[in-house]
């Protein structure tokens, strides 16, 4: 809903969103998945990463929202390998997210050239190449 979905009480809090995402991953039978989080999904992925990041094999935030909701100290506790991605034409949310996410100890940054906020749509080949490189590194 691009942020316009009707409110749901079960995901009104960060704890509720963590529980919801945990339930989805359990229902899908996923063990140590890589969580890819573009834009608005940051409201779900970031609290999950901070609360249960040890359950993830990796994390790929793509200019997610909500990064300023957490402190540098909270990010520094996370040991999940992370690939921070954003497009070089994303002058607002990408660099803003990087200011917080750079505190993750096990991170790399990749800026997709000639791409905007939705770099995975603007430059899908570059995006997928970066993603596959990160996934191969995790093995």
Automatic annotation (TrEMBL):
Chain ranges of the AB hydrolase-1 domain: 69-124
Homology family: Belongs to the AB hydrolase superfamily. ABHD14 family.
PANTHER family the UniProt entry points to: PROTEIN ABHD14A, PROTEIN ABHD14B-LIKE
Gene that this sequence comes from: Abhd14a
Superkingdom classification of source: Eukaryota
Primary localization: cytoplasm
Cytoplasm found in the keyword field: yes
Keywords: Cytoplasm
Cellular compartment(s): Cytoplasm
Name of the protein in its database record: ABHEA protein
Annotated InterPro entries: AB_hydrolase_1 (IPR000073), AB_hydrolase_fold (IPR029058)
A Pfam family matched in the record: Abhydrolase_1
GO cellular-component term (any): cytoplasm
């Amino acid at each position: 809903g691009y942020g316009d979905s009707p409110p749901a009480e079960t995901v009104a809090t960060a704890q509720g969103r963590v529980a919801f995402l945990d339930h989805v991953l359990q229902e899908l039978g996923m063990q140590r998945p890589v969580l890819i989080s573009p834009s608005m999904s940051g409201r779900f992925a970031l609290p999950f990463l901070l609360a249960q990041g040890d359950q993830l094999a990796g994390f790929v935030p793509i200019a997610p929202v909500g990064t300023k909701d957490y402190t540098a100290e909270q990010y520094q506790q996370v040991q999940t390998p992370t690939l921070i991605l954003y497009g070089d034409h994303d002058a607002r949310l990408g660099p803003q997210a990087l200011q917080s996410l750079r505190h993750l100890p096990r991170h790399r940054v990749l800026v997709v050239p000639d791409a905007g906020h939705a770099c995975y749509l603007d430059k899908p080949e570059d995006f997928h190449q970066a993603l596959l490189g990160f996934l191969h590194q995790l093995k």
